[in-house]
Amino acid sequence: MATTREDILESIKNMTVLELSQLVKDMEETFGVSAAAPMMMGGGGAVAAVGGGDGAAAPAAEEEKTEFDVVLTDFGAN
Question: Global pTM?
Answer without folding.
Answer: 0.44
